[in-house]
C-alpha cells in the first residue's frame, strides 16, 4: 500500500503524541503547513530535498529565521521516522537545521529573583505559589514542563543539610533526572505543602489552581512572570525559560564550567550547554575584551 503524505503525517503525529504533548501542537502546525505547500504531490515517496528547500524559502517573507530553523528540525525528525520504516528513500541528512541564538537575549539574574520575590507575601496563597515557582525555576534550572509535571510523590525527604530533591521527567528526552533546591526554596515548599495537602482534590500534582483543581497552564505562569517583571521594573522580556538561561549564566559567572552547566541543567547533548556562553552580552564583551590586542601608540601612527 502506497503511503500518502496526509496519512504519513497523521500516523507520525499519533506516535509523537504518545510521548510528548507540548511538541505535538507545533509539529502539527508545521507539518500541515508543509502538506498544503506540496499539494501537487500526494505520496510520501515523491518528496525530495528540492521540495524542502522550496518550502522553507516560501516561509522567508512571513516568518523569522528561528521559525524556519524549527520547521527544518520538525521535517528532519518526520523524515527520519519514515526513513527508518522504509517508507521514504529521501535522506533526512539533507535537511540541515540552523540554530539562531541571540547574544543579548534577556535572562533572569539573582538580583531579578530578589526583586520579584520581595514583592510577594508568603501568607497569601497566590503570592506563595508565585514565589515558590520563581524560586524553583531559578534554583533548579528546570524547564517549565518539568516543573508543572512534578507530583507530590516525586519529592524526596529533606536532607540533613536542608536541601531537597525531586525526580522530574524531561519531555524532550523522556529521561528521569534529579533536581535539587536550597533551604530558602524548601522553606517556601514546606509552607505551601501545608496548604496544598489540605486541598480537597484527588490530584497528586504539586502546583494546582485552587479554583479549578487542575495543574496551572504554561500561559498562567507566563502571565505571572510578566506581572512580576513589570512590578519589579526590570525592563526585560522574560519567559519561564529565561530562568534556565539565567541559571546557566550564573553558574559560569561563579566560575563554573560548561560541564557544570551540562550536569545541573541535565543536558543530554554536551553541545547544548555551549549555547549559553553566548546568551550574556556582558560575558561576550568580557571574553572578547580579554583577547583584544593593545597596540602601543607608536604602532598606530597614520600618515
From TrEMBL:
<keyword id="KW-0238">DNA-binding</keyword>
<protein>
    <submittedName>
        <fullName>Uncharacterized protein</fullName>
    </submittedName>
</protein>
<dbReference type="GO" id="GO:0006310">
    <property type="term" value="P:DNA recombination"/>
</dbReference>
<keyword id="KW-0229">DNA integration</keyword>
<comment type="similarity">
    <text>Belongs to the 'phage' integrase family.</text>
</comment>
<dbReference type="InterPro" id="IPR002104">
    <property type="entry name" value="Integrase_catalytic"/>
</dbReference>
<feature type="domain" description="Core-binding (CB)">
    <location>
        <begin position="3"/>
        <end position="83"/>
    </location>
</feature>
<dbReference type="InterPro" id="IPR011010">
    <property type="entry name" value="DNA_brk_join_enz"/>
</dbReference>
<dbReference type="InterPro" id="IPR050090">
    <property type="entry name" value="Tyrosine_recombinase_XerCD"/>
</dbReference>
<dbReference type="GO" id="GO:0015074">
    <property type="term" value="P:DNA integration"/>
</dbReference>
<dbReference type="InterPro" id="IPR013762">
    <property type="entry name" value="Integrase-like_cat_sf"/>
</dbReference>
<dbReference type="GO" id="GO:0003677">
    <property type="term" value="F:DNA binding"/>
</dbReference>
<dbReference type="Pfam" id="PF00589">
    <property type="entry name" value="Phage_integrase"/>
</dbReference>
<dbReference type="InterPro" id="IPR044068">
    <property type="entry name" value="CB"/>
</dbReference>
<dbReference type="InterPro" id="IPR010998">
    <property type="entry name" value="Integrase_recombinase_N"/>
</dbReference>
<keyword id="KW-0233">DNA recombination</keyword>
<feature type="domain" description="Tyr recombinase">
    <location>
        <begin position="103"/>
        <end position="289"/>
    </location>
</feature>
